[in-house]
Amino acid sequence: MIKEGQYTFIAEKGPVEPFLGKYAVKRADVFDVITRRFAAAGLDQMRYRPLRIELEITTKCNDSCPSCGMGALPLAAGITLTPDQRARLVDGFDSIGLPSAVVTGGEPFVAVHALMPLIKALNGRGIDISKLTTNGVWGAPRSCERTFERLEKAGFLDNRLFVPLLMLSVGEQTMPLEWVARILHHTVTHYSHQDLNVAVSSLADPADRTHKIYELIEVYEQAYGTFPHDRVHSTMRVYLDNDRLPEQRKADRPGHTTVKRWMDACFDCFAPTVGTYILPSALLKQDGRWYACASFDVPESLGFGNVFTDGLRTILERANDSSYLQTIAQGGGLRGLHGTVPAEFTTSTTCGGFCASCSLLSDKYREANGLPPAVPLPVVPADALMARLRPAAPTTH
User: Fold this and answer.
1) Helix (H) or strand (E) segment spanning residue 37
2) H/E element holding 103?
3) pTM metric for this prediction
4) Is residue 65 over pLDDT 90?
5) Residue-level pLDDT at 208
């Protein structure tokens, strides 16, 4: 498999090579094009401008993973973006020159009635779907090929800037691995790496560190022959033998690495980046809550409002006014926080990853700099959101 971490291209730090990396681009001048889009939208003076927004189209899921990072809900309890909400989001994305969006859930394909129109609408505004995440629920024999045809018709392969990525998630999911293997096989036999990238997100069993992906490889090879290691990208770097910290053993995780070490090895998440990642990013929950980072455990201090009640441009202005984000951006990552939080805290506190250290640091930064504690963004009830989005009734005279 192609390990996450290869082919990182950062703006103003050398040329960009098209069609390389998990988040490959289609053109070498991608950063110039994106810069012009932001300038046309009036964002040229903002330091933080997301290159992608990870959009939760639904909270419904056909599965029930104990460690679900997105907080998905059963089919009967989950909520899907309405047509009015989708239209409002597409207009908002277009207004800020957003280059790309990720569609996630829940499970997007249990809301296929909303998924396909959303892809088509984004494509119509020149906003690429850079990633589509799924557990493979549509990989059954009678639905796999038909769903690929629907994705093509909706414009999933018509990106201008990014090669679209299909992300298949395995681990605690209970979808038959035969279904996941069928989707993989169809991808690599019907599309080139210039048409469509594919990746597997694999979650290791915490008891024995065994990855379900190895079982998936066996299932694939029994059905189709040699596994296409040269086409399938990996993710979940913590568990896939591509650790970011030298001499770090998996047995040490979680919690045996100091915050300082994570800070010193941190990647600059606010430097425009493609290839390995698409950064900077944002997370948009189904109910409109917006965060300036797309990690599962994003700190509440990085939540800056609700796009349905506050407006996307207002939220971007708040994010750019955040002294915490400014300090990270100016310092080239979490290392920029040295001197703004007590050194005794960073050298004595341990955690299991970069994102966990960011969460700890954001709270400590607020405490050390006399800022009030972060509070969770309020969840606006669905009926209240609908009332805000519903057009006003015409007046009569």
Assistant:
1) helix 30-40
2) strand 100-104
3) 0.90
4) no
5) 64
Higher local confidence (pLDDT), 384 or 393 = 384
A 10 A CB-CB count for 112 gives 18
Q: Which residues pair with 303 in a beta bridge?
A: 291
Taking 80 as the threshold, does the pLDDT of residue 9 lie above it?
A: yes
302 vs 119: CA distance, rounded Å: 27
Q: CB 133: neighbour CB atoms within 10 A?
A: 22
Mean pLDDT, the chain, whole residue set: 89
Q: Let me know the angle formed at the C-alpha of 348 by 346 and 353, rounded to the nearest 5 degrees.
A: 60
At 201-242, the pLDDT tens digits run 877 665 566 778 889 999 999 999 999 999 999 875 443 333
Residue 80's DSSP bridge partners are 58
Q: What tokens appear for 158 in the block? A: 């018509």
Both structure tokens of 43: 């964002």
Cβ distance 139 to 179 under 8 Å? yes
Closest to 351 in 3D by CA, of 253, 250, 208: 253
Cis peptide before 83 (omega within 30 of 0): no
Residue 173: pLDDT band with limits 50, 70, 90: confident
Instruction: State the Cα–Cα distance between residues 55 and 75, nearest whole angstrom.
Output: 18
Alpha carbon 45 to its chain centroid, in Å, reads 25
Nearest-5° Cα angle at 120, 115 to 126: 125
The angle at the Cα of 11, spanning 6 to 13, to the nearest 5 degrees, equals 75
Give the domain 9-242+269-334 fold.
TIM Barrel (3.20.20)
